[in-house]
Q: What sequence folds into this?
């Protein structure tokens, strides 16, 4: 559906935000997971035709079966694209209905009756029908994000890009929002960028992990989790011992349970007697990849392409 090859971008300040990024993004939900500064927004903005890459190519399979050169045919992409940016702002004094109607006009829905039908349908789809007359300034974070999805869906896009949409939502709103995305993902490609591992675990049949502009892994979350089987070990340790464990072992994560640190360690063998083997999760995969990248001396870093293949 979307094919990204060797995409690179260096900002004027010298930051390599995208470093030879290659990804295949199919229909359905695709999770793009990475910490702050990984390059997710740079990639999203490039796909959304809002900024230029230095090199590489991106092609989108069009509705007619042809392909669109995303980096060049920007108008063609925009006709097939819905985008919810990270910093989606709304006019606080305007009602949801009026602003969506306004966006619909901008999208080219000029026939009044048809526009009403589309706007009403979207307000129902995102479950804001009862709140449609309310000013957007009175909306909760979750409601604003659902409004953001409604505007992204105007014009029946084939590709929907949502950048960190669940940050700041409470668990109930987050669930509701993710369920909405999953429904949309049944028909179109949805790229969900997030730093929240559970967003991807719960929802995305395919994903990529990104950091420092590089793709560290891409594929199915379950395959990546299965590849770690038998290599994640857990132990409760004393607070004073923690630093030593961190220096001797590859500690993936530390959790305080009842005030005591419990560590997950990556190791091919049982690290010591007190450890028990645990079933890995996507969080272990995520931290293992980030750790692996951090441990490599810069000079011996394999090319991102070779690295992604290792996955
Ligand atoms: N316009 C810009 N000019 C210079 N540097 C930038 C610019 N935009 C982003 N960066 C830098 O590029 C790197 C990648 O940023 P990007 O926003 O793409 O990451 P991200 O994964 O989306 O993180 P976040 O969740 O914090 O937005 C960061 O080091 C960031 O500081």
A:
């Amino acid at each position: 559906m979307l094919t990204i090859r060797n995409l690179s971008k260096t900002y004027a300040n010298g930051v390599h935000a995208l470093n030879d990024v290659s990804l295949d993004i199919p229909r359905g939900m695709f999770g793009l997971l990475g910490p702050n500064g990984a390059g997710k927004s740079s990639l999203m903005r490039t796909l959304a035709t809002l900024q230029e890459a230095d090199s590489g190519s991106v092609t989108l399979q069009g509705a007619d079966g042809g392909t669109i050169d995303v980096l060049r045919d920007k108008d063609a992409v925009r006709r097939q694209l819905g985008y919810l940016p990270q910093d989606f702002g709304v006019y606080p004094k305007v009602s949801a209905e009026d602003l969506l109607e306004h966006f619909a006009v901008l999208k080219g829905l000029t026939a009044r009756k048809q526009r009403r039908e589309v706007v009403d349908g979207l307000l129902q789809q995102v479950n804001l029908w009862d709140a449609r007359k309310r000013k957007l300034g009175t909306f909760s974070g979750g409601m604003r994000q659902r409004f953001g999805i409604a505007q992204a869906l105007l014009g029946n896009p084939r590709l929907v890009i949502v950048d960190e949409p669940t940050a700041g939502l409470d668990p109930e709103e987050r669930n509701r929002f993710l369920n909405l995305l999953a429904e949309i993902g049944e028909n179109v490609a949805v790229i969900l960028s997030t730093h929240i591992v559970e967003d991807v675990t719960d929802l995305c049949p395919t994903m990529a992990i990104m950091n420092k502009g590089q793709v560290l892994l891409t594929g199915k979350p379950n395959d990546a989790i299965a590849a770690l089987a038998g290599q994640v070990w857990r132990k409760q340790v004393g607070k004073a011992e923690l630093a030593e464990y961190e220096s001797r072992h590859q500690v993936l994560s530390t959790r305080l349970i009842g005030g005591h640190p419990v560590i997950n360690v990556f190791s091919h063998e049982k690290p010591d007697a007190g450890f028990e083997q645990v079933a890995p999760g996507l969080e272990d995969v995520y931290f293992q990849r980030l750790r692996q990248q951090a441990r490599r001396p810069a000079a011996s870093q394999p090319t991102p392409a070779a690295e992604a293949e290792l996955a």
The first strand starts at residue 2 and ends at 10. Confidence is low (pLDDT under 50) at residues 305-311.
